[in-house]
Amino acid sequence: YLYFQKKQNEMRTIHDTFLNAMAHEMKTPAAVMKNSIECIQAGIHPEKQAHYQDMIYQEANHLNHLLEQMLTYTRVNDSFYQMKQENCDLKALAEKVCEHYTAFMEARNITLHWQISGDGILWGDSCLLEMVLDNFVSNAVKFCTYGGNIRISIEEQGICVYNDGKHIPKEYEKSIWEPLFKADISQNTDVKLNSSGMGLAISASVLKLHHAKYGSRNVQGGVEFYFEKGYTTVYRKNQ
């Protein structure tokens, strides 16, 4: 009883912390939209009308992205959630994801490398795993040094996404997988990618659903994010 009582209290604390953090995160775009609308209605700086409208549009997109991420996170953390079960081709999913970031890579003179040494077939939900890969590649593009390299390695057991860049500080190694954690460990100010601070938290939840091993590691020249088959995923595939 005491154990379950303790767990219940921990879950309540996490729930309250998450809601408070989410509310705080949503305050900024809401305030910017409100201020821009008031400026338009009051006719302040008529020459900046287009600018105000653009601000409203951008912050509305930011708010929508944040809400979608929140709903995804709560959905995959629901104990009753049932994910799809199918063979997922990690190479095909990674290629599809990378197409979305081609323009960003070209703008920053980033070179994409592929290293294939296995089929990379994982038993699970392809939509959820694509979301994980999108988060990994998005982070790689965001934190890669200008003119640097991104390398996607696919093996029999899983996938690894590497980027040239600064190492993750030791004190952030666990925090980066928590909801709404955002620490700018790069100096890239020219990368215009949506960031809600939820991407890696969602990735962690999805990979736990798949009983997959996952993590990040500092390596020579940069950082790697990876996930690979756990015992359960292999067992199910063989069935």
Question: Can you describe this structure?
Answer:
The protein is of the alpha+beta class and 239 residues long. It is built from seven helices and seven strands, in the order H-H-E-H-H-E-E-H-E-E-H-E-E-H. It has helices at 2-42, 49-76, 90-100, 102-107, 126-143, 199-209, 231-238, and strands at residues 86-89, 111-116, 121-124, 149-154, 158-164, 213-219, 222-228. The strands form two sheets. A five-stranded mixed beta sheet has the order 2-4-5-7-6. A two-stranded antiparallel ribbon has the order 1-3. Strand 4 (149-154) and strand 5 form a beta hairpin. The chain is globular and about 60 Å long. The two termini are 38 Å apart. Residues 232-239 have low confidence and may be disordered.
Give the mean pLDDT: 83
C-alpha Rg, in Å? Answer: 20 Å
User: Element order, helices and strands?
Assistant: HHEHHEEHEEHEEH
Query: Helix segment count?
Result: 7
Which key terms come to mind for this protein?
single chain, 239 residues, five-stranded mixed beta sheet, two-stranded antiparallel sheet, 7 helices, 17% strand, disordered C terminus
Concise structural overview:
This protein is 51% helix and 17% strand.
